[in-house]
Design a protein that fits this description.
mainly alpha
């Protein structure tokens, strides 16, 4: 994910209790909802396409909720510091939404889709396995690829945003997307 110091995160969330620094959308099981579309893409050969699209709905809901959460936290932090609340909240929402949309939905969804499509094609042309076996093998391959694509995609999206959109913010640190 985009980086911002834990100190800012704790300041925005308030202090106290062992869970004060826990981000609901990044540090709990809810984080896995961002990968719902990758799972849907992995199962595309087996399930109805409507379920694949539903998995994109779940992932998009996660991305939106995380962006709104980061906007609220940025607004709270700016209110404490007496700064421009609306500007910082907007930057946090936009930055988080774009980052999450690219790193959690668009790029990984496309990647898993292409891995599965290529594997289904190759299995059809190189093996004599029955179609159901090829479909399940494709699903297994798609699911097993998910852990390997996450970090490279995250780093690539960080680089992309640092090299483009985040330059427009004209500041030394990234906006508060990693609360």
């Amino acid at each position: 994910m985009g980086t911002l110091s834990r100190d800012l995160a704790e300041a925005a969330m308030g202090s106290g209790g062992p869970e004060a620094g826990v981000d609901l959308y990044r540090d709990t099981w809810l984080r896995y909802l961002g990968y719902a579309n990758e799972v849907g893409e992995s199962f595309r050969a087996i399930v109805p396409v409507s379920l694949v699209w539903a998995s994109y709905g779940v992932a998009t809901a996660y991305v939106t909720a995380d962006a709104v959460d980061k906007g609220k936290k940025a607004a709270a932090l700016q209110a404490q510091q007496g700064g421009g609340v609306a500007k910082e909240a907007t930057l946090a929402v936009v930055d988080t939404f774009i980052w999450q949309a690219l790193a959690s939905v668009i790029i990984p969804g496309f990647t898993i889709n292409r891995i599965c499509a290529a594997s289904l094609y190759l299995l059809a042309s190189r093996t004599r396995w029955p179609l159901p076996v090829r479909k399940w093998a494709t699903t297994a391959l798609g699911l097993s690829a998910i852990p390997f694509i996450i970090k490279p995609i995250d780093r690539s999206v960080d680089f992309l945003m640092d090299s483009s959109l985040r330059k427009l913010y004209k500041r030394d640190e990234k906006p508060p997307t990693s609360f």
